[in-house]
Structure formats: structure tokens, C-alpha cells
UniProtKB/TrEMBL annotation:
Transmembrane segments: none annotated. This is DNA polymerase IV. Monomer. Binds 2 magnesium ions per subunit. The active site is at 103. Belongs to the DNA polymerase type-Y family. The lineage of its organism: Bacteria, Pseudomonadati, Verrucomicrobiota, Verrucomicrobiia, Verrucomicrobiales. Mg(2+) binds at residues 8, 102. InterPro entries: DNA/RNA_pol_sf, DNA_pol_Y-fam_lit_finger_sf, DNA_pol_Y-fam_little_finger, DNA_polymerase-Y, DNApol_IV, IMS_HHH_1, Rev_trsase/Diguanyl_cyclase, UmuC. It comes from Luteolibacter luteus. Keywords: Cytoplasm, DNA damage, DNA repair, DNA replication, DNA-binding, DNA-directed DNA polymerase, Magnesium, Metal-binding, Mutator protein, Nucleotidyltransferase, Transferase. It catalyses: DNA(n) + a 2'-deoxyribonucleoside 5'-triphosphate = DNA(n+1) + diphosphate.
């Protein structure tokens, strides 16, 4: 039986800053946002009570919470703690698929101990050795494990066993499915669809007719079907980061601050791949109607000005449609391609 665990650190950057400076504990803290035009990288739970959240412009966060304490990002510190956590994962399995500095999938199917007990022990070791907390989801597949990891946050876990998947998905709010944001949730609700069980009433043909290719994917997702494997040793062809906005952004200028914040995170990630050569830079936009476009340019370094050009190009293709998701990324050259060139 498959035992997939999704580990998600609780307000990772903010939790580390509170550990480093205990005077911050119990106070609303936002990490990032070097200027009023910047955006928050994350906010702790005290700040979230006021409505502050990641990717929110600093000026708006301060309007919601004037006493918000802003702390600059320290990615070198966060990477060090992430490496500690990765080492803890390695005590239990080699089948680790990192998603970012603060979350990962673990395949524990080869171990006889229950997934819940293993997740609890992993979380205990993280707390004891790093001083910060993690939440976990345990399930037969990656999608449900990721949803379940958010069930008992912070510092909790939730398990969905194989014989519980049908009941779990039937009552799951439709907005918890990957790719279904606020606007789409509202559209579904206008159709009388509030849960995955409601969506399960449509057959594949009807889903394809109503939602196109994405409808076929939705047909599986709303039933808890996810056949993806945890992929620990794949050669990275690219690195990227994405942000699905809580509210669609209708202006190009509104996209720039979150993009530059995401590029800081991308630059931090890139340090781990310093031996790889960059082939191109990429900007992806998904619009409110779920159409998407990708702008790409061959360039050998992470250059903010190039990303500005790509963002404008992608925006123009959308003909002023509101944007629900922004992604920025880097594609690497194939290591084999470099090797072949050296042998010539």
C-alpha cells in the first residue's frame, strides 16, 4: 500500500526569524517587502489574523495591520535550515521530492510502520533539531497528501487512508482542488457545485464539453485519482516558482512587485544549481478564463530586466485579461549536451 507523506513547514521563513529573535514571538511578523511597493514573502499566524498573507503588497499589509513588524528575507539562513530538514527526511527514505525550501513529498511505502506514526516522528525530530514546527498529510497519493497537510495546521497532521478516499473527496470543498481558485469556485457555486461530490455527478464527456482539456483532469482530481510518483532523482530541466493570486490582478503594474519578490526566491534556489548552465528565462501567465501563455528568451543569467520584458510580452498576449497565476522560471542546458560539446 502506498504511503505518501507531504511535509509542509509552518510559516517557514517567519518561524525561523522568530527562532532567531524570540522577541518577535506573539507579534504580527511579515518577511520580505523591502519597500512600500514590495510584497510579503510570508506572514506569521498572528499577522494572518489581520488578513496579511504571502504575495500581498506591503502597503496593503500595513493598512490591515499597522503594527506589522517587517523583517528582510535571509535566504542563506533559510537554505541552511532546509538542508537540516532534508537530512532528517533522509533518515527515513531516499524517495524525497522537494517542492521548495519548506515542503516536500516523501514516499514511505517501503516501511512497515504506519504512515501516521512515521510522519509524527519526522515532525518531532524537526521540532527538536531546528526549533520550528511542521504539518503533514498522509495519503495514498500526492494530491490528497498535500491537501491533508493543510488540514490541521499549524503543528498537526491528518491521514486519509485508501478506504477513506471516496468519502474524503465526496465532501471536500471544490476550492481545495489544485487549480480551482476563487473565481472558479464562485463559477462552480453558481452552477450548484460546492463539493467534489457535486462535480462527480458529471461524466467525462460533459466535463470535457464544459471545461475543455482541463475538464478531463478535473474528472480525475475530484475523485482523488493521482498516479504521479514521488520523483527523487530526476535531473532538473528547470526551476520555477508560481503564485496563484487570491484575487485576479487586472493591471500589468500590479504584477511587477510580486514578480520581483518571486525572482529573489528563484535566485536563492539557483544557488543549489551553480554547476548548471542557464539556457533561457521564462514567464508564465494564467488568465482568469484559464487560458495561459508562456514567454521565453534565451539568456545565460538571471536578469530582472529580461523578466520585465517577458512579463510585458505575456501580458500583451492576454489582451488585458485579468491574471490569476504568475510563474517565473529558468530552463537549464542539458548536461549531456555540454558533455558532447566537450568531447568534440
Amino acid at each position: 500500500m502506498r504511503k505518501i507523506v507531504h511535509i509542509d513547514m509552518d510559516c517557514f521563513y517567519a518561524a525561523i526569524e522568530e527562532r532567531e529573535n524570540p522577541a518577535l514571538r506573539g507579534k504580527p511578523v511579515g518577511v520580505g517587502g523591502r519597500t512600500m511597493r514590495g510584497v510579503l514573502t510570508t506572514a506569521n499566524y498572528e499577522a494572518r489574523k489581520y488578513g496579511c498573507r504571502s504575495a500581498m503588497p506591503v502597503f496593503k499589509a500595513l493598512q490591515l495591520c499597522p503594527q506589522l513588524i517587517l523583517v528582510p528575507t535571509r535566504f542563506e539562513l533559510y537554505r541552511g535550515v532546509s538542508a537540516q530538514i532534508r537530512a532528517i527526511f533522509g533518515r527515513f527514505t531516499e524517495r524525497i521530492e522537494p517542492l521548495s525550501l519548506d515542503e516536500a513529498y516523501l514516499d514511505l511505502s517501503h516501511l512497515n510502520t504506519s504512515g501516521a506514526a512515521l510522519a509524527r516522528e519526522i515532525r518531532n525530530q524537526i521540532r527538536e533539531e531546528t526549533g520550528i514546527t511542521a504539518s503533514a498529510g498522509i495519503a495514498p497519493n500526492k494530491m490528497i497528501a498535500k491537501i491533508a497537510s493543510d488540514w490541521n495546521k499549524p503543528d498537526g497532521q491528518h491521514e486519509v487512508r485508501e478506504d477513506q478516499v471516496e468519502a474524503f473527496m465526496k465532501d471536500l470543498p471544490i476550492g481545495r482542488i489544485w487549480g480551482v481558485g476563487g473565481k472558479m469556485t464562485a463559477k462552480f457555486q453558481g452552477m450548484g457545485i460546492h463539493s467534489c461530490g457535486d462535480l462527480q455527478q458529471f461524466d467525462k464527456l460533459e466535463m470535457a464539453r464544459r471545461f475543455g482539456k482541463w475538464g478531463l483532469e478535473l474528472w480525475e482530481l475530484c475523485r482523488g485519482i493521482d498516479t504521479r510518483e514521488v520523483q527523487p532523482h530526476r535531473i532538473r530541466k528547470s526551476i520555477s516558482t508560481e503564485n496563484t493570486f487570491r484575487e485576479n490582478l487586472s493591471c500589468l503594474e500590479d504584477l511587477r512587485p510580486p514578480m520581483h519578490s518571486m525572482l529573489d526566491e528563484l535566485a536563492s534556489d539557483l544557488v543549489r544549481y551553480e554547476e548548471r548552465e542557464i539556457r533561457s528565462l521564462v514567464v508564465k501567465l494564467k488568465f482568469a478564463d484559464f487560458t495561459r501563455t508562456t514567454a521565453e528568451k534565451a539568456h545565460g543569467v538571471l536578469d530582472h530586466s529580461i523578466f520585465e520584458e517577458l512579463l510585458a510580452e505575456a501580458w500583451q498576449r492576454g489582451e488585458n485579461k485579468p491574471v490569476r497565476l504568475l510563474g517565473v522560471g529558468i530552463r537549464f542546458k542539458d548536461p549531456q549536451e555540454r558533455l558532447q560539446m566537450e568531447l568534440l
